[in-house]
Design goal:
The complex is a heterodimer of chains A (147) and B (130).
Chain A lengths: L1 H12 L4 E2 L11 E9 L3 E10 H12 L9 H25 L5 E2 L3 E5 L11 E9 L2 E11 L1
Antiparallel strand pairs in A: 1-6, 2-3, 2-4, 2-5, 3-7, 6-7
Helix pairs in contact in A: 1-3, 2-3
Chain B lengths: L2 E6 L3 H11 L4 E6 L2 H11 L3 E4 L8 H10 L8 E5 L4 H10 L3 E4 L4 H9 L13
Parallel strand pairs in B: 1-2, 1-3, 3-4, 4-5
Helix pairs in contact in B: 1-5, 2-3
The chains are: A alpha+beta (147), B alpha/beta (130).
């Protein structure tokens, strides 16, 4: 996931996020979260990409070749965050598929808010990676349950 | 005559990037947001090339590709899959149905132009006279 995230951010956004060694989820203000689920006979789970609102706008500008001032609404930010999450999940799906664990992925969903946490169901393994990108931090969270 | 390209992706972001990539070329771009719309557009416009996502609502890209290849009027239209899914079995399954190329997201616009340029004769737009 670390390598794939670096590839997605470098190729699509010309950004080079740095993985932080801390294991704690950062507390947050306004957030935009992309969520893509995956599931098959042997695995179910989801990938969440939590971006601060300023970083979500920066990512949108970089992806679409726009200036920050040209981003006028939430729709284009939501679509870009969903697409980046989709690319991250696609990489995970491909890795699972090559390991013999077939699954399908969902279309992306977006969560916006200021104070929420994603809770996992029992038996679901939950891991996250915290990255720094310029002045902002973001989190990739993966929930996996092997059946 | 411009080259007719149909971009089928539920993500507006990807359709915008595809549009930006082909902007310098003499291309007429059509867009669809799912396989059902894409199939209708392919039958209506008979594009020279389809750029097709896999995971979409309403009708996914694999179903659209299968229907496209089953129809005598559209089976010769070349298709490039543009998808985040690159698992070996997925690629093989899709290759069996019949695609000309496969581009995995994340991708650079130049990669898309290079792959499209192997299938259709892309010509740069003539500069607009002042």
């Amino acid at each position: 996931m670390k390598r794939h995230l670096a590839d997605v951010f470098d190729t699509m956004l010309a950004m080079k996020p740095v993985l932080l060694p801390e294991a704690k989820l950062p507390s947050s203000g306004g957030r935009v979260t992309g969520a893509v689920g995956f599931g098959g006979e042997r695995v179910t789970g989801a990938v969440y990409l939590h971006l601060t609102e300023p970083l979500a706008r920066q990512v949108t500008a970089a992806m679409l070749g726009l200036t920050l001032a040209e981003i006028t609404g939430e729709d284009e930010v939501n679509d870009v965050v969903g697409e980046v999450t989709n690319m991250l999940t696609g990489g995970l799906k491909s890795w699972l598929c090559d390991a013999g664990i077939e699954c399908a992925v969902s279309t992306p969903a977006i969560i916006r808010g200021t104070a929420y946490d994603i809770e996992s169901m029992p038996d679901v393994k939950r891991e996250w990676l915290v990255f720094e990108c310029g002045q902002e931090r973001f989190v990739v969270e993966v929930h996996v349950k092997l059946n | 005559m411009p080259i007719k390209i149909l971009s089928v992706d539920d993500s507006r972001t990807i359709r915008l990037i595809v549009g930006k990539a082909f902007r310098p070329y003499d291309v007429q771009l059509f867009e669809a947001t799912n396989g059902e719309e894409g199939l209708a557009a392919a039958q209506r416009e008979t594009p020279d090339l389809v750029i097709l996502d896999v995971t979409m609502p309403v009708m996914d890209g694999v179903t659209m590709l299968t229907k496209l290849k089953e129809n005598a009027a559209t089976k010769a239209i070349p298709v490039i899959m543009l998808t985040a899914e690159s698992g070996r079995d997925n690629v093989l399954q899709i290759a069996k149905i019949g695609v000309r190329d496969y581009l995995v997201k994340p991708f650079k616009e130049e990669q898309l132009i290079e792959k499209a340029g192997r299938i259709v004769a892309l010509q740069k737009k003539a500069p607009v006279a002042a």
